[in-house]
Amino acid sequence: MERKEQAASWFREIQLSICEQLEKMDGLATFEEQQWVREAGGGGHTRILRSGRVFEKAGVNFSEVYGPLPAFLAKETGLAQGEFYATGTSIVLHPESPLLPIVHFNTRYFEMSDGKAWYGGGMDLTPIYVNKADTDNFHAGLQRICQRHHPDFYPLFKSWADEYFFIPHRSETRGVGGIFFDHIVPDVHYPQETIWGMVKDLGVSFFDLYASIAKKYLGEPYTDGQKAFQYLRRGRYAEFNLLYDRGTKFGLETGGRTESILMSLPPMATWEYQYSPEQGSPEAHTLEALYYSPG
Amino acid sequence: MERKEQAASWFREIQLSICEQLEKMDGLATFEEQQWVREAGGGGHTRILRSGRVFEKAGVNFSEVYGPLPAFLAKETGLAQGEFYATGTSIVLHPESPLLPIVHFNTRYFEMSDGKAWYGGGMDLTPIYVNKADTDNFHAGLQRICQRHHPDFYPLFKSWADEYFFIPHRSETRGVGGIFFDHIVPDVHYPQETIWGMVKDLGVSFFDLYASIAKKYLGEPYTDGQKAFQYLRRGRYAEFNLLYDRGTKFGLETGGRTESILMSLPPMATWEYQYSPEQGSPEAHTLEALYYSPG
What we know:
The structure is a homodimer. The first copy, chain A, is α+β, with helices and mostly antiparallel strands. The first copy, chain A, contains 9 helices and 10 strands. The longest helix of chain A has 24 residues, at 3-26.
């Protein structure tokens, strides 16, 4: 089986298996699926769960797109022309309760007609209320997964995430980070089986890693004030995705399906001019934890 | 008086005068003002009105920024290096009632250290419920203002707005358009007094033009369904501003004050996967009116 077929069929499988786990966790709503076709080649299956008990909105995408290299990709890859192929999954969970963190997980395989191929992906947590134990738990889980495949992976991918999931105009990280990697070309250092093994492991481990954190807060009551703070934090999430996220840019610029790409946006978000939480409040604690000023 | 001083002092004046008119119209909330300083040179005065009777959020900015040419501007202007100067006003009104349209108005003066100088600006209306009479009224008002200064202005600036206020990934215009112009360099065709005269006229006429439309709906009751549709339409507004708006990009990339630049974002917005209004409904009418597929 060709690498791309192997990747696509596995990505589709893991999409379905993650959806099953999420439905079980939600216990109320189920995923609806739309299949879409990309005019210039390929398409995808979008699965969305809405107004659940646990999830206000959960999006689990699979796509496989190919065709002539779009202009912006030609520029980025330095290739004059050719064909590209890309397949991947992309997951964003927006829980109903502000006590549960938002989570994002994406993996992708990329191949050019000249034979160049690479893997990419990322998993990051965006708590509304930052909690050190949860953050450590999440990071340790990712470290365990990465370590199973190559000692370089976790330190490399963690610092990449810190750099990537950053909102420069806010001097804020999007959340508490996780891992991010792009353009990992199989070679003698990182053989194909090593990278692909890690990508698959991430997919298999994703649900348990998220659930181990989220389940702590399931059923716990929250206040209107906490919900309002969630809306505000979701506003920042929307800022990151629309201004900086490469996946969103890639999707929109390659003529992907808008409703599928923008499933990552929160169901409801607010912007409040000069929001400033009470000193010493849990909201202030989150903002302090996310504040980062480079240089 | 130098052109830039003339522009800056007039922009600041019109900011204050428009705020006064908006406060009178609102009748409840008043503007708060923050002065900010830009590290690399200049700064601004941001005026925000919140939770009013008419306006959920109204932002009226004035800024005057200058200093070494930022990299992205050097690229855009083709200049290797130098100093830039930019001053302008920027207004975005987000009414409480979904029956009142969102409106945006911006004017700016730009000068480079090599002597090149130009004007830019725009005014466009984003009704939640598109109404032909209001659209015609708005366009006719802009046409009257432009015509007082040069016969080319309205046709040129109107088609520019149609092109600019467009959300390609939605095949939707942001609203019903208006005027947009950029990089208008004074020359024999369009003398400085002509352009500057038009810019000032826009500022003086803005409030009456908006109020003549908005006042029709003041005090009219609206439903939760109409408010929900306003939240959705505001989501599109946020998409445009974060993905495509040049002013937002300019502000963020020149190290402007984030809270001032992003005052344009709606106080609350929603994203609903695959939103589709009932056939024949007023919501469907708006989406049909805004739909545009180029080519």
